[in-house]
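Render this sequence as a predicted structure.
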Amino acid sequence: MFSLSDIAIQFPHAEVERVPVRYNILSSALLPLIILTLITTLLSPSQSPNRLHKVHVTILGLLISLLLTSFLTDTFKNAIGRPRPDLLARCKPAKGTPTNKLVTIAVCTEKNHHTLHDGWRSFPSGHSSFAFSGLGYLSLVLAGQLHTFRPRTDFLRALAALAPTVCAAMIAVSRCEDYRHDVYDVTVGSALGFTIAYLSYRRYYPALRSRRCDAPYASRAETTEKKNRGKGVLDEEGRVGDDVHDEEDGEEGQENEHVPLRAASAERRGRRRSYPD
């Protein structure tokens, strides 16, 4: 329900958006996908066995960030149902509708189903969350590949890593300029998108202050292979140690076998000496 006297929903409806949905998908999903593919390929040694693994987990992290953000954003939008700032312009209330009472969607005369019902999907901002989930993830990967958060990093690397986040912020601001969202919708959407982007990045990469922040975690197959190699080395060392111990035990046994013989020889010599000539 809503009231015609609520000034928060009395803004005009912009027919032409500054950043349409297709441009947001292009700049926040397709462009990061191309850039990430290039940098993970070019910044990795051509003979490196982990090159394909690095490209794979980087692209996978981007897709997880985008899909999970979109799913959560739509879930919150449909569950909360907060009206947009341009709701009255979308609704076009019928004449004679009371201005100081709560009314329902029944007073609306708009015939376009999507335009009308989309007026109750304001929180959080989908453009903002999607932009930060894609471009924010790109910033994190750039920061890791360029070692931006390592000590004594030059300023140009910091600017290169920050640029995608600035673009995401500009997309988020455009939603307020088009009266599609207010500052709360945009702030929460941006925070949601960047949080998921960070969690998705940290799933495959170490912290940005790590010395190895440009290399992803090893795959499960590689980790299992290393463990098997370690077990093989330990088993081989154990067998060598057992052989050494067996040799030492054999030498000690031989020495122990000679001890009674030596004692018997010494006893016979003592008897001979005791007999008078």
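Summary. The longest strand covers residues 2-3. The CA atoms of residues 135 and 166 lie 9 Å apart.
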